[in-house]
Amino acid sequence: MTAELIRGRVVADSILSPIANRLDTATTKPGLALLLVGDDPASHVYVGMKEKKCREIGYHVEKHVLDAATPEADVIARVERMNGNSDIHGILVQLPLPKHIDERRVIESIAPSKDVDGFTKENLGALMSGEPGFVAATAAGILELVKSTPVAIEGSHAVVIGRSNVVGKPAALLLLREHATVTLCHSRTRDLEAIARQADILVVAVGRPKLVTSNMIKPGAVVIDAGTSKVDGKLVGDVDFEEAKEVAGYITPVPGGVGPMTIAMLLANTMKAMEIQTTS
Fold it and tell me: What is the pLDDT of residues 64-78, one digit of tens each?
């Protein structure tokens, strides 16, 4: 058996196409501010991809690039100016930040109504309690990828490997909200192989190349690989794709799986933020 590919670009287009159509006649354009501090090459690539997609769809986008030595107070001051800018409906601070800057302080300086990455305590708390708010884009994208398959989430056993606030925890909460039985695993989980093999839906978001091999996958399972690492100049995921595709029922490739969905859900969140801010 060879798994069916879950093509992130196709699912992303199904989300972005209706937004682009609406913007053709819209008088107000969603505004997204992208803040990048430092010269991390990967961060520049990611921000560039987000900026490009914004312009393609028809968003108003501002990119702010600050020197790596910029003091934390100046970074927060820049965020606060964006908070007060009515043309900006969403703010994204690209992580990681330089080591002298407290990421949590910077994230918490973003107005929750403009936190389209869903990283502030207010939005994370809303997700935990089932209240309306912005959900982390990658986690939201993962859920949409699972929903694009014929596999029912309700009643399924979902295993999430990785417990970050950015991907693992919000992905687990979203799957729980859809009535899956969820197991959240991490680096100290005992007998990870046996637990992973129980999963009808397996989400991996660790950042360790080929952590998950075929013997960790239940035949026919949905496998969502949210990991990205560079190995010999190539982008690879947390799942050994060549092995896994012979066991899984549905699987995301890296690249071309979760990545396009992160951008799509970020733009969808920004559209939602604009609608809330312009009607309140």
Answer: 999 999 999 999 999
What is the identity of the amino acid at 22? R
Tens digit of each residue's pLDDT (9 = 90 or more) over 191-208: 999 999 999 999 999 999
Chain centroid, CA 130 distance in Å: 19
Nearest alpha carbon to residue 223 among 233, 231, 232, 210: 210
Question: What's the gap between Cα 38 and its chain centre?
Answer: 21
Structural domains in the chain, CATH included, are 28-111 (3.40.50.10860), 136-259 (3.40.50.720)
Q: Is the dihedral of CA 170, 171, 172, 176 positive or negative?
A: positive
Helices (H), ranges, the chain: 8-23, 41-57, 72-83, 103-108, 121-129, 137-147, 168-177, 192-196, 241-244, 258-279
Active-site amino acid positions: 50, 94, 117
